[in-house]
Amino acid sequence: MSRQPITREGYEKLQAQIKEKEDQKPAIQERIKIAREEGDLKENAEYHAAREALSDLDRQINTLRLKQQQCEIVDKADLPTDEVGFGTRVTVKDLSDDMEEIYELVGPGDEDFDGDILKILSTSPLALAMLGKKVGEQFEAQIPAGVLKMEVISIEAAE
Q1: What class, spelled out in words, does domain 4-73 have in CATH?
Q2: Computed from CA positions of residues 9, 15, 18, 20, in that sequence, does the dihedral angle turn out positive or negative?
Q3: Residue 134 pLDDT > 70, yes or no?
Q4: What is the pTM of this model?
């Protein structure tokens, strides 16, 4: 399996999310301990709720750790900007309505769909369709809403 590129900032953001989740564990473990002291565990709703919360938290931590393990930190300064790839900001034109959109291809933890620049995972269907394309090239992207026909207008290094 190939490793997914991620910036140093994205990697540190994932690390912070893991730490935040791990910091929540002692409080839940204390809830389990207190609930256990109340006696019969079969009908102890607080005990079962706390155990479920701990299990859910562990699952979230493991998911973040797996995501982190599958990443490779890359230096944005070393990335080429002559073709669409991880770490590039791409302006594309939808050929059906001539509307332009700006996308930034990012790694896990850096996705952001608010604002003028849409930060999409470099492994998303749209990003995969435009990978390797150069300015002026057209491509089709299969997305849940249908097929998009687009043209690359500009490529630059993401900030």
Answers
A1: mainly alpha
A2: negative
A3: yes
A4: 0.72
